[in-house]
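Hello Y.,

Per our agreement to keep a running log of every chain we model this quarter, I'm adding this entry. I've kept the format consistent with earlier entries: sequence first, then predicted structure.
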Amino acid sequence: MAPADFTELPKSEQLDVLYFEGDLLANRYEDEFIFLLYSLADFFVELRHDAYTNQLRQVTAFRSTDKLEPYLPYLTEIGYE
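Predicted structure for the entry above:
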């Protein structure tokens, strides 16, 4: 599965794929948002969750390691350096 294939799935199917096939790598907090980083096949998926409204706001699938920068402090803590 490619990132584009993943993002074309309905949100409920995206979450099912992440739950059953993805690996949660890290989470971080920014303002009222909780960001979750998953590894799925050969790409990454980031979920942006609004903590105040308890709603999923955005799902982003990517391969670029540049987008991992905000997670680096959390990944090195658990041995992904």
